[in-house]
Specification:
Elements lengths: L28 H7 L8 E4 L3 H6 L15 E2 L1 H14 L5 E8 L5 E8 L6 E5 L7 E5 H7 L3 E7 L2 E7 L4 E2 L8 E4 L2
Parallel strand pairs: 2-7, 3-6
Antiparallel strand pairs: 1-5, 3-4, 4-10, 5-6, 7-8, 9-10
């Protein structure tokens, strides 16, 4: 109790809302881990490249069979993709994810919004949240297969991220974009 001010006990409902103490909610690591859990149903593969096209274009890649191609899309990432699609008024809007040589660990992720699917793309969607399109070219999928795609919101900005890539050695660079291939 401060000096000179008498203490008065009032029931909470008698205190105006504007003068009540406000609480600040933060996420703790254990809550953040729950938020990135994969959907209860597996991600859907909507389409895959044709072997004829890959052969015709002479792309040096072994195509993954549709039953083995897998990208996990978290609920947060799917909601953000749905929001982008609504804002663009385009149900075909998609996140294109590619793997390129470079970065401080040998490989880096490249992500951009795409309006259409290329003939060498695998097309994934969240099982419940629609539209939530993710496109990965055949060469990149060989390095991303089994990865989880999430959307993170932080004080410094928000972005899509590749998590739990089974082909990446360690956690990669601090930026979350550059990584090293397991040998």
């Amino acid at each position: 109790m401060r000096r000179g001010y008498p203490r008065i006990a009032l029931p909470l409902r008698a205190i105006p809302i504007a003068t009540r103490a406000r609480s600040l909610a933060t996420s703790r690591p254990r809550r953040a881990a729950v938020a990135t859990k994969p959907p209860s149903q597996p991600t859907i593969l909507l389409s895959s490249p044709s072997p004829e096209y890959i052969e015709q274009e002479e792309i040096d890649v072994d195509l993954l069979p549709p039953d083995q191609a897998q990208i996990v899309i978290t609920d947060r990432a799917a909601e953000q993709l749905r929001s982008i699609s609504a804002r663009e008024a385009d149900p075909g809007a998609a996140l294109r994810i590619a793997v390129e040589s470079g970065g401080c660990h040998g490989y880096q992720y490249k992500m951009e919004l795409a309006k259409s699917r290329a003939l060498d793309d695998y097309h994934f969607s969240h099982p419940i949240v629609k539209p939530s399109n993710i496109l990965v070219d055949a060469v990149s999928l060989s390095l991303l297969n089994g990865s989880t795609i999430d959307y993170a919101t932080e004080l410094i900005g928000s972005s899509f991220r590749v998590l739990e890539n089974p082909h990446a050695k360690g956690s990669g660079c601090g930026c979350g974009v550059s990584w090293e291939l397991k040998t």
